[in-house]
Amino acid sequence: MPSKTVVLALGGNALAQPGEEGTITEQFRHTRESLGAVVELAREGWRIAIVHGNGPQVGNELIRNEQSRHLVPPLPLGVLVAGTEGWIGYMIQQSLQNALLRGGVDRQVVTMVTQVLVDPDDPEMQRPSKPIGRTMDEATARELAAELGGEVAETKGGWRRVVPSPRPTGIVERDMIRALVAEGHVVVAAGGGGCPVYRHPEFGLEGVDAVVDKDRAAAILGRDIGAEVLVILTDVDRVYVDYGTPRQRGLERLTVAEADALLAGSDLGKGSMAPKVEAAAEFVRRGGKRAIIARLDQGREAVAGNAGTEIVP
Prior knowledge:
Belongs to the carbamate kinase family. The chain is an alpha/beta fold.
């Protein structure tokens, strides 16, 4: 096996797309469609770890929690994240095993439910601001918050639950993931950003009711397993400044300093691209050789340097 390791970060919307019901059949289909680049990279000998999002999926789990709360005890958010790590990992693992077999690539796939360390004193823990779950009217939202705990806030289109999103600082299972990847196995890890935990001085690892951004988690995982490359796959083909305006301009290559300057300004707007650029730059800053942000179907081309926006030291 060559020594090069890549971490691929797949968005949760790649598996459950807007405008669909989000049935498990649809999600399996999208999962199968999203793995072509992984098969080709595996064929070329890359060591691979896969991180996936879980935004739509954990939101649905919250709805199930709410609707069944009078029949069975509700589960805390950290446990729901672990549940989505397991079943989304199962979809990716099975779909990729089948695709590798059809492609004649002799590689094994394993899913690891992953705990991600956060700082319990992170200021984000005191500022729940990440919307998750369904949109509700104010009365319903406040009723659920009073009964189940947590906070709600008015967001675009209505009221939603809001939870903390602290920064990840490390991967608890990093040694096991690194060893499996080094042996040539494709590892699905830190799904949905992983289960956020902290080290209690008396009790050891303890979970927190929060969510971790999956791109930030992918950057930390890449650092912890010594990956050379991080690829963040999304629904646009590269990073754009002034996106959606007549001044829109795509970027092919950024240094970390240029990425930092871009993040400090307003050119990226308030969308979801800024956290991706931040995670990519942080990965490179901490020793990664390069990070690429590209469209989901361009993963192999992105690794080859022929697609997306590349961030380098």
